[in-house]
Amino acid sequence: MEQDVIIRIIELLGTFAFAISGIRHAAAKQFDWFGGYVCGVAVAIGGGTIRDVMLGTTPFWMTTPIYLICTGVALLTVAFFGKWMEPLKNAWFVFDTLGLALFTIAGIQKSLAFGQPFWVAIIMGCITGSAGGVIRDVLLNNEPVIFHKEIYAMACVVGGVAYWALAEFGFSTEIAAVTSFLVTCIIRFLAVRYHLSLPVLNEK
């Protein structure tokens, strides 16, 4: 029970950080409060919504209002304390990464619970963790970050493969989840620290 509470707290912090990311991008474009809230929601619940629709189940945010409330708190935070948030950008990055890893695991586990094969579960984990950012960038008329910045979505994929590999070798779900979490976080941290990215495609 204590572990579940810790995971839920980190997950909500990740949701909050995701929402902050969307709202801050909207603020940079001088959107109004509603536009900022929509961008925040897009990042916080977009990936999970796509996953649930593809799995044929009720989107997770329709079963509890906590995610929409969390986004509302993020909106107020940016609106009233935005100028004091810049020094905390490293902290938001950490929360964002923790949320990315946890949402990836949540997507994998939920897909497996619905009887999907592992290769589908890995894709669903990636969608859960990163698709919200794509929706945000589309709404803001920006090129999606995951296509040209440091490794982001690929961290989800590698974390998902680590989960699958351990499960295949008979390790418990807990060990697979913790390992996947650590792999996703480490890859993301290293990618940002050393500006790692995938090779760029060239026309010629």
Structural overview:
- This protein is mainly alpha-helical and 204 residues long.
- It contains seven helices and no strands.
- The chain has helices spanning 2-28, 33-55, 66-81, 89-113, 118-139, 153-168, 173-193.
- α6 (153-168) runs antiparallel to α7.
- The mean pLDDT is 88.
Summed up, what is this model?
The protein has about 200 residues and is mostly helical. Helix content is about 75%, strand content about 0%. Helix 2 (about 35-55) packs antiparallel against helix 3 (about 65-80) and helix 6 runs antiparallel to helix 7 (about 175-195).
Top keywords for this entry?
204 residues, 0% strand, globular, mainly alpha, single chain
The H/E string reads HHHHHHH
Largest sheet: none
> Overall 3D geometry?
globular
User: What structural class do you assign from the helix and strand content?
Assistant: mainly alpha
Number of helices: 7
Counting DSSP E segments of at least 2 residues, the number of strands comes to 0
Radius of gyration: 17 Å
Content of β-strand:
under 5%
> What percentage of residues falls in helices of 4 or more residues?
over 70%
Mean pLDDT: 88
Low-confidence stretches: none
Distance separating the two termini: 56 Å
Chain-wise SSE layout:
Layout: H1 2-28, H2 33-55, H3 66-81, H4 89-113, H5 118-139, H6 153-168, H7 173-193
Helix pairs in contact: 1-2, 1-3, 1-4, 2-3, 2-5, 4-5, 4-6, 4-7, 5-6, 6-7
